[in-house]
Amino acid sequence: MTTKAAFLMLLTFVFCGCQASDTLRGGDGFDDSGGGSETGNGSHDSSDDAALDTDDNALDDGCSQEAKYIYVVTTDKALLKFDPGSKMFFEIGEIDCPEYNSPVSMAVSRDAVAYVLYDGGKLFRVSTSDASCQGQMADLWTGNQETRGMGFATVGNSTVEVLYTYRMNPAPPQLATIDTHTWKTTPIGPMTGRPELTGTGKGELWGFFASAPSGPIVARVDTETGALATTFDASAVGGPESWAFAFWGGAFYIFSKEYNEPSTTVYEVKATGQLSVYMANTGVNIVGAGVSTCAPVTPI
Q1: pTM of the model
Q2: Which of the residues in the chain have pLDDT under 70?
Q3: Which domains does the chain have, with CATH numbers?
Q4: What pLDDT score was predicted for residue 62?
Q5: Per residue, what are the HEC states of the chain?
Q6: Which pLDDT belongs to residue 212?
């Protein structure tokens, strides 16, 4: 995710640790009974409600069930699991990393580990099972460097994955990779529009460009050059204050909150480019989303 305010100043929050819970969040916030509501104005096919463990939709690579969900992080550092098929958020817990700044982006690897980037540049590993902090990996904003959106994508149809990021500084802004051993960034090619990135298990990298010159778009990114290929109009999302982006099951999900909205709205963008409201008023402010390359790549 990216917040417009985060480009102007550092946001500070006080954090606390808590136990993971089984609370479910539907379209209108908490549902203490363990149920959820299917809210939103977008169309929803009952065929999309299939369980996530579909053998035909993932490589036979030993991916865990937990690696097939979308994970999101909120302004109050809550880590949630999102199942697009059932339109449900499952609260995992509150991230307990020793960092007072707010999260600004997140990516999830094939072993279901979340990499959470905080305003200020610190990158932490976080467990997706209980939200516990697994340690700081790097400080990505050293010197004049500043990175934002992140997402893993595979190399072709293999199980080898690469972590991509949008590097704002030093100028000009560029698509870059992050080496997950040395945590150094390597620029690839110029890129504008402050995107949040997401990848697939078929080697594709996509971005939601909230600040594209012609208005918000969803676009496929050439991983060799940073150039944009297929693009879909996403102007219906408006001018978000905070946003996040993830791919799952043949569709894209934009998590967006405008200044006058009480909480995040989820938009679905189908493979045809058709955009609709998927869930309105989720009850949380989502500032980062991550999905591993184990997630289903075609509609289920």
Answers
A1: 0.81
A2: 1-61, 142-145
A3: 46-58+65-291 (2.120.10.30)
A4: 79
A5: CEECHHHCCCCECCCCCCCCCCCEEECCEEECCCCCCCCCCCCCCHHHHCCCCCHHHCCCCCCCHHHHCEEEEECCCEEEEEECCCCEEEEEEECCCCCCECEEEEEECCCCEEEEEECCCEEEEEECCCCCEEEEEEECCCCCCEEEEEEEEECCCCCCEEEEEEEEECCCCEEEEECCCCCCEEEEEECCCCEEEEECCCCCEEEEECCCCCCCEEEEECCCCCCEEEEEECHHHCCCCEEEEEEECCEEEEEEECCCCCCCEEEEEECCCCEEEEECCCCCCEEEEEECCCCCCCCC
A6: 85
- Provide the pLDDT for residue 107: 97
Q: What is the pLDDT of residues 253-281, one digit of tens each?
A: 999 999 989 999 999 999 999 999 999 99
Contacts of 67 (CB under 8 A, 6+ apart): 108, 110, 111, 112, 292, 294, 295
Q: What is the pLDDT of residues 161-193, one digit of tens each?
A: 999 999 877 778 899 999 988 888 899 999 888
- Residue whose C-alpha is closest to residue 162's, from 67, 293, 1: 293
Q: How many CB atoms lie within 10 A of CB 55?
A: 7
